[in-house]
Design goal:
337 residues; mainly beta; nine-stranded mixed β-sheet; 4 helices
Length: 337
């Protein structure tokens, strides 16, 4: 049994194996709660749950961990069934499988880890000592008793960043799909890799969550990386208000942001040439005098050179470029903190 340090305590990691079609229980004593660390339904060796059909020893159900965590995390006892119907289908049809789970029992349950103890935001979770690295956490910005899962970046620039828009290209041969969300709870769909918030959703989010910074992050395999965060002063606040729909006044670009360590963009170096105010280009402003689509349509750009641009149903998907093609792995992300 492995032992790891958690806070000031040593916490034992408990392994459980359940053979296919069988039921098993994981549990914690004395009021402690289950925290699932690893799970796989499939087969990874030829000595566990011996059977005549063991040919595939690289058999994994990719949804195993998420399914077991959703079912068991935060409980004192949890019954599991090792069956393909539970894990979204058979990962290796001719092989006898088993479910392996590794978990620990925690006396202290940090804010944001489970649905019954959500945080207000990723920053709140970080500040409360609940960070366990980048990943999914539970938040309830309205304190309404209706929490949902989001992605928190807990490492970049001190962490506490909530992912509010996320597009990742997985097939460069087709025009990407873009799901435009009109309510802030759409941030919970980040894992579909095609979600961006419209202005009214950003307005709603800021009415519940007093974030003070935005972070724009995009990168292309065939190009460069644009990665900036707004600064924590009145100039940066003007950018937050603009993209949150609290004002239509386009904010100054220069002095409003800081370049992150991996930013190698041309766009971030020519802020005086940014923007369009409805009559003139290169006005040194964020945006394009647009409305609901301001977060993804020319949020930052130098005309005909370097653009932050996503066009739903169109061919222009640009990150510090102008009409450069797409590759698998290209992405655009927006965070708030």
């Amino acid at each position: 049994m492995r032992v790891e340090l958690y806070g000031c305590l040593q916490v034992k990691q408990r392994p459980v194996t359940i053979c296919e079609k069988q039921k098993g229980t994981i549990s914690c004593q004395n009021g402690k709660r289950i925290d699932v660390l690893n799970a796989n339904y499939g087969r990874l060796d030829q000595h566990t749950c011996l059977h005549e059909r063991m040919s595939d020893i690289n058999c994994r159900s990719v949804s195993s961990l998420q399914i077991v965590q959703d079912k068991c995390n935060g409980k004192t006892e949890c019954q599991l069934l090792a069956d393909s119907s539970v894990f979204g289908g058979d990962p290796c049809g001719e092989t006898y499988k088993y479910l392996q789970v590794r978990y620990r029992c925690l006396e202290y349950i940090a804010v944001g880890w489970y649905s019954d103890q959500p945080g207000r935001s990723c920053k709140f979770i970080r500040d409360s000592g609940g960070s366990r690295g980048d990943g999914e956490y539970w938040i309830d910005p309205e304190n309404s008793g209706n929490p949902f899962k989001v992605f928190c970046d807990m490492t970049t620039d001190g962490g506490g960043w909530l992912l509010v828009s996320n597009v990742v290209i997985d097939n460069s041969s087709s025009i990407p799909d873009l799901s435009l969300e009109t309510t802030y709870r759409g941030i919970g769909k980040y894992h579909n890799n095609k979600t961006f918030l419209q202005k009214n959703a950003m307005t709603e989010l800021r009415s519940h969550l007093s974030f003070t910074q935005l972070r724009f992050y995009c990168s292309k395999q065939q190009g460069r990386t644009f990665h900036v965060t707004t600064v924590a002063n009145s100039t940066g606040e003007a950018v937050v208000q603009y993209f949150s729909g609290q004002t239509d006044v386009q904010p100054d670009a220069c002095g409003s942001f800081a370049r992150m360590e991996n930013d190698n963009s041309s766009l971030a170096g020519v802020c005086r040439q940014w923007g369009y105010n409805g009559t003139s280009y290169k006005v040194g402003k964020w945006g394009h005098a647009l409305d609901q689509d301001r977060l993804y349509n020319h949020g930052a750009f130098v005309v005909s050179l370097y653009h932050w641009l996503l066009t739903p149903g169109g061919s222009r998907w640009e990150c510090d470029d102008y009409n450069v093609g797409l590759s698998s792995g290209d992405f655009w992300k927006v965070f708030v903190r």
